[in-house]
Amino acid sequence: MTSAITPPASPVRTRFAPSPTGFLHLGGARTALFAWAYARHFGGTFILRIEDTDLERSTPEAVQAILDGMAWLGLTPDEGPFYQMQHMDRYREVIASMLAAGTAYHCYSTPAEVDAMRERARAKGEKPRYDGTWRPEPGKALPAVPADRKPVVRFKSPQGGTTSWTDMVKGTISFDNTELDDLVIARPDGTPTYNFCVVVDDWDMRITHVLRGDDHVNNTPRQITILRALGAPVPEYGHVPMILGPDGEKLSKRHGAVSVMEYDHDGYQPEAMINYLARLGWSHGDDELFTREQLVSWFDPQHLSKSAAQWDPKKLNWVSAHYIKHTDDALLAQQIAPRITGRGGDIAKVDLLQVVKLLKDRAETLEQLAEGAMLFCGEFIQPAEELVTLHLTETARNALRDFAVQAGDIAWTREAISALIKTVLATHTLKMPQLAIPLRVAVAGSTHTPAIDAVLEILGKQTVLARLADI
Ligand code: GLU
């Protein structure tokens, strides 16, 4: 399928730029997915950049969690991961060049002085801002440099006019330049600030398209003005609305899992997650189920939604059930084996392929599938006393004994077992539930199991006869 939009002239380069302050959360994973899909759609390059300059909040565990989450989802970067902390020299070099070019300047105002400036502006009913005391202008005399005070570096932001861009998601967005203030790009100790690092990296990494959360909309005009001052190309921007919880509030821990790896833990397959996340804020007609390849071939940012998406656990389960149903049996068996072992089950007891075949149509997650498989792989749990009294009546026991005697002689296939059940029903003039439920209680310890003939077949003749002998 060809793209609905004109392919960009230069090779597409997108990036996912998480700050490693926590897990890879659902919103981040979705942004990464969109940036990845966009690059893949145009045969471009997807870059992973770890924005780790906030030393107090960044942790190596969070970096690892992000890498794990991306790997689990199969969002493999073509370049990176790069780490901003490793680019410090480059940021300093660009700051020095801006100071030399006059697009940035030293500002010696103390934080208290800047607060006072903001207060004065507020008192006049204006937007609180730095008043430009140290901003050099032709013919303007600057104050004397205070001794022993380290300056910050401020960007000499354009005054007057507007900064606008055509957002890939939201359409035209415009900011009045008077709102932008002269941003601090380096602190008194020379360390660069957040927006500045983003700008330098987007420039150096030749990023052509920035897809990110719409909490960054306010940063974009600042980044654009700095890029322009540097003579750097300005990428296209697309700001994706946030994900809301089912109650319409911002998605948070309250709504359940927020880290993608929790979904791995809970038994969702990465492909199901990719499908579900893609639909969360992006559409291709009415298609709800599609492969990763289809997503790549269809991905058009014009179909990213302008409004916030709502997390819907029921729909995720529906998507997940579809993927489980369509996963190859052998692969499913492989996927659930460690989950069964983790529950203390023994996968050698049965043919796991048969178990998977029997259960896969009803499971929403790998965890449910593994839980269901415990009927075959786990220890036999004796039926509760009430079940025995209620279902293993004298009539039922007689029928069960008859079943056991004749079972010794039949080929142990589902068909033969089903035929034997019918014979016993006829002999004892019982209806199906009058034998099927006692059989379940006797061999599975519960009244609820999948089709009893299939359950008996998988359990194996020996096990079934041993359990029936015990009643
Ligand atoms: N590091 C930012 C974050 O995690 C993203 C920056 C960007 O995409 O420009 O929110």
Q: What top-tier CATH class of the largest domain fits best? A: Alpha Beta
Bound molecules: glutamic acid
Q: How many structural domains can be distinguished in the coordinates? A: 4
Oligomer: single chain
The CATH superfamily title of the largest domain: HUPs
What is the second-level CATH architecture of the largest domain?
Answer: 3-Layer(aba) Sandwich
Q: Percent range for helical residues?
A: 40-55%
Structural class: mainly alpha
Strand line-up across the major sheet: 1-2-3
Number of helical segments with 4 or more residues:
19
**What is the general shape?**
elongated
Strand content: 5-15%
* Main sheet record: 3 strands, parallel
Architecture overview:
- By secondary structure, the chain is mostly helical.
- The chain folds into four domains: 13-82 and 196-241, 3-Layer(aba) Sandwich (Rossmann fold), CATH 3.40.50; 89-192, Glutamyl-tRNA Synthetase, Domain 3 (Glutamyl-tRNA Synthetase, domain 3, Alpha-Beta Complex); 328-374; 385-469, Arc Repressor Mutant, subunit A.
- The chain has helices at residues 26-41, 60-73, 88-101, 111-123, 194-204, 219-229, 260-265, 270-279, 292-298, 313-325, 329-342, 352-359, 366-377, 385-391, 394-407, 414-427, 432-444, 452-459, 461-469; strands spanning 13-16, 45-50, 79-83, 104-107, 152-155, 162-167, 171-176, 184-186, 209-213, 236-240, 243-244, 309-310.
- The strands form five sheets. The chain has a three-stranded parallel beta sheet with strand order 1-2-3, covered by helices on one side. A three-stranded antiparallel beta sheet has the order 4-5-8. The protein has a two-stranded antiparallel sheet with strand order 6-7.
- The protein starts with 12 loop residues before the first strand and ends with a helix.
- The mean pLDDT is 96.
- Glutamic acid is lined by residues 17-19, 51, 198, 212, 216.
